[in-house]
Amino acid sequence: MVEPALAKAEEKMKGAVEALKRELASVRTGRASPALVEHVKIDYGGVPTPLNHLAGISVSGTNLLVIQPWDPSSLHLIEKGILKANLSLTPASDGRVIRLSIPPLSEERRQELVRLVKKIAEEQKVIVRNIRRDANEDFKKLEKDKDISQDDLKRGEAKLQKLTDVYVSHLDQVAAAKETELKQV
Hints:
The chain is of the alpha+beta class. It contains 4 helices and 6 strands, in the order αββββαββαα.
């Protein structure tokens, strides 16, 4: 009875790690990455549409993104959407493609982004700890309903704590990798 609850908790914890990876992908590091803009919403025909559904996004060199719209008439809409997204990036268009030059980060901005990464990672750790709390409550309910013994409860709590420690460690590793990337000049 404990194992299904542990498996469910582990799935949710994996989700927290994936959510952190997705969120950190959009944090600008001074290097060009399609993840910086692919989820920018463009008002296309009155419908907010992710940029990656309207155009191909590629990296040219280390600090240049090239956005090639599949519908050339959407070029102006994409430019406007990028400006509205407040990414501190100015699109340059030649009529066929949009180029986004990624400027190098100042030391002050790097420190700001490192703090942001830590904050985002801490939010995901709180989510993992909440998952642990919920699973522990499920274990206690099972024990109260006499579905598991007190020994099973203690073993389940111990396994859950180990699982929590593993996923908190994964979150720390992902955040540390992003911090290292941010600190590189």
